[in-house]
Write a structure and sequence with these properties.
- The complex is a heterotrimer of chains A (431), B (320) and C (178).
- Chain A is α/β, with parallel strands linked by helices and 431 residues long.
- Chain A has 13 helices and 19 strands.
- In chain A, helix 1 links the parallel strand 6 and strand 7.
- The two termini of chain A are 18 Å apart.
- Chain B has 320 residues and is α/β, with parallel strands linked by helices.
- Helices cover 37% and strands 14% of the residues of chain B.
- Chain B has twelve helices and nine strands.
- In chain B, strand 3, helix 4 and strand 4 form a beta-alpha-beta unit.
- In chain B, helix 1 crosses helix 12.
- Chain C is α/β, with parallel strands linked by helices and 178 residues long.
- Chain C is built from four helices and eight strands, in the order E-H-E-H-E-H-E-H-E-E-E-E.
- In chain C, strands 1-6-5-4-2-3 form a six-stranded parallel β-sheet.
- The longest helix of chain C is centred in the first third of the chain and has 17 residues.
- Chain C is globular, with a radius of gyration of 16 Å.
- The relative contact order of chain C is 0.21.
- The chains are: A alpha/beta (431), B alpha/beta (320), C alpha/beta (178).
Chain lengths: 431, 320, 178
């Protein structure tokens, strides 16, 4: 379809562009950009006056809960929620049921999602069979089926020798390894260690669980040139260690979730199970360090860490509740909220949702790497048009995801997505 | 961050649930103790009953076993003329997979007025309190390692009975403080009531440093911990602590932290010794101290009934 | 037993000390002729001073008792326990005793009903009598006093209470009921 997006404020962090421009889209690509595009007869005109026109967002962690944990039409609802949030590419972790360690499962997932003509889905394959941390998966086969990297989701590998071998094997092929840095034994708690967890009588996860895991990963990386992406940094010390590792020249990237960016341990109030999250949200100084790290580039990407936990799984005492929150529709708003609160330039805010994640995915994207996460002439037409001055209240009635549990319920958040275009196709239109 | 109203109080600031001693004012705690004073004498009458909760149903919901505490609540409710139903959760529908809140809904449909709840997860009574209707009251009989407010209240009653004013007392809590809901509730109550010198004593594995933020002095050495105190509260040491690499053995614990008659002399000569029970003789406390003149453990038990009568009467008289 | 005095007095003309003297005079022969020991019990809180003074002025051995209606009140669910103050203290065996309940004002009769229930929690008395300084009528239960010193009409919007000055002098006060 030929689409013309008129008079929007176009922002492209990769080139630094920020100007009111028209965009012409045809056959899935951006065919013209400029103050006024002429000689183009669109089938659809989108009036983007007073809107921001950004590259479609790239979310490095969205759980679709398929295969295995799906309720009826869950894949459809979560994919709809993603595009309603302005997301045109998403990465889903391998902790499905069964685990994504077989090429056939990856093929099926890619087939089902492609049919929906919404966001592009980039699955992460399991690093070890069944995520059990013992036997390597067939990474080459899985990459052929479409995996963009290999990870362990929330199941850390305890055996350091196995971990080393996963690095070595992945490095042989240039595959990236995605790990959540948390020591298995020290990470058994349900809340962040500290005076609050002590007072509330909840088992804690100390910062040392993250530090020890990071130091282990970095030391192994020094011996093996692996490409590692660290998922969900949660502490000030973690940010410092990543900063030092990057300065040292290690090939490492990292992300932070919207929850750790905005919330702290005391937000759980009287045991609100919506704050039962992995990693747990920590203290004030950790949040401050994460925000500074995301602004200065130490942290490459902001992720939703979307997990549509069902209602009953949260109606339990805190420690027994299933960790996770619905978040894919809040990603853009929460990024903008951070930007406005900390006076971060809009270019950087959009970058952590587009350019940053694409850099993390790197060559696993193949030819898409040239233009994904960008608005560039000749590039893929993945676009998010949003109204920066609108606002919305988070609630069961405003969320499209089947997961309704979020710690931000009742919050008024900035910005509303007007239109989402994925591969030149209008995937979402607020109307 | 959103502020939430203390779920224990209704819009008028009256007590509708007892979930924790934390968040209760000095006036509220004192009111409960004063009310308990009225109930102590009920057990000395010929008719050991008053009709305050007549026609009300008290459901004892114990997800964690405890014959002692459950019996005390049973007696307290019966003395208030309430109907008592004891639910053996282990054998009931909850173990067949029925969720906690479904269990509560079913029982509420049977017109329960008060739920006395003991659960092994911290925070469980809060979930229940948020879920029940305005005429139903929740009394926390112990949740995980978070709180045991009626135990703390009867401990405060005992201390007040023997020592009077809190504002010039030294109190030491000795033992597995990290895992103790009794310790946490006592700490909140004592600090609110104005105790100026409160210490927690035990090895570092059982007494975390960040407890100091609750307003106590952390001591890893028994001698300095109970030096000159007016009250020593000894806590039960559970067997699980040995398997979790927190302690090598009960004998070693007794060697360094067990309260013997000789060590008791480090406290004031008229210091009282308390224990929430059940006691492990020879582990946290020597037999001769348990049976000795300074121990007031049996008084704690007696006062426990009056305190629980007070708590149930007070919450039942206010609407949520 | 009927009252020996049947004075109807104006509320603002109540002389507590004077009424007490009349009570003392009236009750003396009733307690002196008893072949069983007589136990005076003051109803909290107004009756407590009266019972103490009577105990002394009648030359009775021991101390008068105190009885509280708190635990048997019928308005617990409305008023809660905030009214709990003085506790019941009966320094004698209630079983087989002759008990004189003493109170300042008899009004609806509910306090007496609660007090009787409280008394019977302690045992089975041989007989129970009630003496009051003032009966203000407006009974809601079938309760009567055996000895009334004065009758007085007080509107239901006001309360009538006995108090004791620092010097031990008894006075009546009328307040608009809160």
């Amino acid at each position: 379809m030929k689409i013309l997006i008129q008079s929007g404020r176009v922002i492209d962090p990769t080139s630094g562009l920020e100007a009111v421009q028209d965009l012409a889209i045809a056959a899935g690509r951006i065919v013209a950009m400029g103050a006024q595009v002429k000689d183009f007869s669109p089938e659809r005109v989108i009036d983007a006056t007073d809107c921001v026109v950004a590259p479609g967002l790239v979310d490095l962690c969205t759980r679709l809960r398929e295969p295995g944990f799906e309720h009826e039409s869950m894949l459809e609802s979560e994919m709809s929620a993603a595009v309603a949030g302005g997301i045109t590419s998403l990465v889903c972790p391998p902790d499905t049921d069964p685990v994504l360690d077989e090429p056939g499962l990856v093929d099926m997932l890619k087939f089902r999602t492609k049919k929906l003509r919404q966001a592009r889905v980039f699955p992460l394959g399991a690093l070890t069979r069944g995520l059990e941390g013992e036997v390597l998966t067939e990474m080459a086969e899985l990459t052929e089926s479409g995996c963009v990297g290999f990870g362990q989701a929330d199941a850390p590998i305890q055996n350091t020798q196995v971990l080393q071998r996963t690095f070595q094997y992945a490095a042989s092929f240039g595959y990236s390894v995605w790990l959540r840095p948390q020591d298995y034994w020290l990470g058994q708690g349900v809340a962040a260690s500290g005076p609050l967890a002590t007072r509330m009588g909840l088992s804690g996860v100390p910062v040392s669980a993250e530090v020890i895991a990071l130091e282990t990963i970095f030391e192994l990386m020094r011996g093996t040139p692996a490409r590692v992406h660290l998922c969900r940094i949660s502490s000030a010390r973690g940010v410092d260690l990543v900063r030092a590792a990057k300065a040292e020249g290690l090939s490492v990237t990292c992300d932070v979730s919207v929850h750790n960016l905005h919330l702290i341990d005391v937000d759980m109030g009287y045991y609100d199970a919506r704050l039962r999250l992995q990693p747990p949200v920590r203290q004030q100084r950790d949040r401050d360090a994460l925000r500074a790290g995301l602004a200065d580039g130490t942290i490459d990407a902001l992720v939703s860490d979307h997990n549509p936990v069902e209602a009953d799984a949260k109606n339990l005492p805190f420690a027994q509740a299933e960790p996770g929150a619905t978040a894919v529709e809040l990603l853009l708003s929460l990024a903008l909220k951070w930007g406005r609160e900390d006076q971060v330039p809009l270019q950087r805010v959009i970058a952590v949702l587009t350019q940053g994640p694409v850099k993390v995915l790197g060559q696993s994207l193949g030819s898409l790497q040239a233009s994904l996460g960008q608005i560039t002439l000749g590039g893929v037409a993945d676009i998010c048009v949003y109204k920066p001055d609108a606002a919305w209240v988070v609630g069961a009635d405003t969320l499209r995801s089947q997961g309704k549990h979020t710690p931000f319920a009742g919050y008024e958040l900035p910005a509303k997505v007007a239109t989402t275009i994925a591969g030149g196709y209008i995937a979402f239109d607020a109307g | 961050m959103r502020t939430q109203r203390n779920p224990q109080l209704n819009a008028n600031g009256e007590l509708i649930h007892l979930l924790s001693t934390e968040g209760l004012s000095k006036e509220m705690l004192t009111h409960i103790l004063d009310t308990a004073t009225n109930f102590v004498s009920v057990s000395d009458r010929e008719v050991k009953k008053v009709p305050l909760l007549r026609g009300k149903s008290v459901f004892n919901l114990f997800f964690e076993n405890s014959t002692r505490t459950r019996t005390t609540f049973d007696i307290a409710a019966t003395r208030l003329s309430a109907d008592v139903v004891n639910l053996d959760i282990a054998r009931s529908s909850a173990s067949k997979g029925e969720s906690l809140l479904d269990t509560i809904d079913n029982l509420s449909a049977m017109a329960a007025d008060i739920f006395v709840v003991r659960h092994n997860e911290s925070g469980a009574p809060y979930l229940i309190a948020q879920h029940v209707g305005p005429h139903v009251h929740v009394v926390n009989a112990g949740d995980g390692r978070h709180a045991h407010p009626t135990q703390a209240l009867l401990d405060m009653y005992t201390i007040r009975h023997f020592k009077g004013d809190f504002s010039n007392l030294s109190v030491a809590i000795v033992g597995d403080v990290a895992h103790s809901r009794v310790a946490r509730s006592n700490i909140h109550a004592l600090t609110t009531l104005g105790c100026p010198d409160l210490r927690v004593v035990g090895p570092k594995t059982l007494v975390p440093n960040d407890m100091a933020q609750m307003g106590v002095r952390v001591c890893n050495d028994l001698r300095s911990g109970i030096d000159g105190v007016d009250v020593v509260i000894t806590l039960r040491l559970q067997n699980e602590r040995m398997s979790g690499a927190l302690l090598p053995s009960a004998q070693e614990f007794f060697k360094s932290y067990g309260l013997t008659p000789e060590r008791l002399q480090w406290a004031k000569p008229d210091a009282i010794v308390m224990h929430p029970g059940p006691i492990n003789r020879g582990v946290e406390i020597a037999s001769s101290v348990v049976d000795g003149p300074q121990a007031v453990i049996l008084s704690q038990v007696t006062f426990g009934i009056a305190v629980r009568m007070a708590v149930m009467s007070i919450v039942a008289s206010h609407e949520g | 037993m009927t009252s020996q005095f049947d004075n109807t007095v104006q509320a603002d003309a109540l002389d507590a000390e004077g009424l007490y003297q009349q009570l003392l005079t009236a009750i003396r022969p009733l307690t002196a002729t008893a072949d069983k020991p007589v136990r005076l019990v003051g109803i909290a809180s107004g009756g407590v001073w009266l019972a103490q003074r009577l105990q002394k002025d009648l030359g009775l051995a021991g101390e008068s008792g105190v009885i509280s209606s708190s635990l048997h009140r019928d308005d617990f669910s409305k008023r809660g326990l905030s009214s709990m103050g003085v506790q019941t203290k009966l320094p004698f065996d209630v079983n087989g005793a002759t008990v004189w309940l003493i109170d300042d004002v008899l009004y609806t009769g509910r306090t007496i009903r609660a007090v009787l229930n409280e008394l019977f929690d302690y045992g089975r008395p041989a007989d129970v009598r009630l003496a009051v300084l003032v009966d203000r009528g407006q009974r809601e239960l079938p309760v009567q006093a055996d000895l009334v010193v004065a009758r007085c009409s007080v509107p239901s919007t006001q309360s009538l209470e006995l108090s004791q000055t620092d010097g031990g002098r008894l006075t009546f006060g009328i307040e608009t009921a809160g």
